[in-house]
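Task 17 of the worksheet. Students: predict the tertiary structure of the chain below and write it out as structure tokens. Keep your answer in the requested format; marks are given for formatting as well as content.
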Amino acid sequence: MTGNMKVAVMTGVGQMAFTSRPVPRPEANEVLVKVEYVGVCGSDLHYYEHGAIGNFVVQPPFVLGHEAGGTVVEAGAAVTDLVPGDRVALEPGKTCGHCEFCRSGRYNLCPEVAFFATPPVDGVFQEYVAHPADLCFKLPEQVSTMEGALIEPLAVGFHAANQGGAHIGQTCVVMGSGCIGLVSMMALKAMGVTRVYVVDIMEKRLSKALELGATGVINSAQISVIDAIADLTGGKGPDLIIETAGTEITTRQAIQVAKKGATIVLVGYSKSGELTLPISLALDKELTIKTIFRYRHIYPMAIDAVAAGLVNLKALPTHFFKFEDIQTAMDRSVHEKADIVKSVTQIS
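Model answer:
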């Protein structure tokens, strides 16, 4: 396929513009995908608002966006399992394939990973993208490309649930009900966890959690999290806690409310990168504390869960924006966080 495509670029902090670039040509092991939907992630918003995340600094013009779903329009010569017309979800990280982490199956820890919208690698706020075929997962007929775009954050939720050893019969608490908190809650429910409670300070996000299947919610701006969870668990505490808010107070609360012998999975990044925690209490309770970085080997599981109706991704977005309104999409997503739980941009 030849010609040019429209690309949205970040030209500076808080500034978006459109440019034209040649449609990429797929290599032998790649497919060319017509991008149809891209989710707006918290990392996109952080780059847009601040120009950097830690050591990853945006050098404009830069393309944001890494949660993508679309349709294959061309396949490279070596591609055998995808053909034009196949609808796919794109896993955004290309790894080296030969380091100790890739060879042991922990490819998400590859030091050479090239991940969409992580500087200096451009993202997918554009009409077409060429991507390795083995990172493009075919969607069943009943799963839309909009849902395909949201497989990426859902994969984070499933990886957190897997790391925590989630299973039927447990009582779990999710700290934070932003997008990652919500997909973590849905992943836990899909894996059979019996009771999942969600904690946040924003009422609209808690209402969305209930809509998506939470057993109950706790508004920590109104009541004591410690007392509420004690009441809900008969004083024992939850078996598993997934912390997605990334704040010191919620991480401390997780340790305080956890049942003895429980597992805590840390998902959220703190703004400072450092937390002061009651480690003596964690030792006394013999807690297991785990962390996650993105995900690995999760896309097939997440797609199956959506196809089977175990996860309702259609209900996750609260706002949709046209591609031509990308500046508005970014601005509103930054400034209206109490109302916009998850926004999605329709590229085509």
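Marker's comment: The mean pLDDT is 97. The chain has two domains: 4-150+317-346, 156-291.
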